[in-house]
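Fold this sequence, please.
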Amino acid sequence: MNNILIIEDEKSVSEILKAYLEKEGYGVYSTENGLDGIELFRKEKIDLVILDLMLPDIDGEEVCKILRRISDVYIFMLTAKVELSDKIEGLNIGADEYLTKPLSPRELTARVNALFRRVGSGKDSIISIDDNKMTIDSDKRVVKINEEEVNLTPNEFDILYALASNRGKVFTREAIIERVFGIDFDGSDRIVDVHIKNLRKKIEDDSRVPKYIITITKVGYKFGEEK
């Protein structure tokens, strides 16, 4: 059973989400402030965090940064901020999805179900790249470069795995969104560019001259290392 932690100061919202998610068979923990959420996260095995940004003690952005330093758990940010710049900032600090209020509990539940279907659908395998300089373990969801583990967010891992397991194939931004975020994703395709930029910083020797994730002008991206 997958466990979900809701960090949301509006008790009515938290209770509704908890009821919907428990009905789907998830184990759900909830708290109304950020510090308690961090403490609870450290104690329990949590697979997904639903994080409100407006919390009474510390900002949700700070909670996200702390969780990302200690874990690659999936993080859904839940907020009333609707500007694209806010979404990009949320993704840059480690969120995997940025959902704006008001949000239907049915929609959120559908997104959660889609996430866990994607996570559980991959075949166990290890991809070796560049004479073993990089390895991608889809079972353990671990990426290593020169035998050192690279700390990727879940979406960064999914994008890398999608490209690397289809070396030479060009993916449009829309195809990456469908593969990684699901067909019900309703955000801007610029979100893909943000993830690619962050991913390159972590895996490329020089992110300005990438050799792994190659931009195909006016089309999308492909993995540059040939089989």
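The mean pLDDT is 86. The two ends are 37 Å apart (CA to CA).
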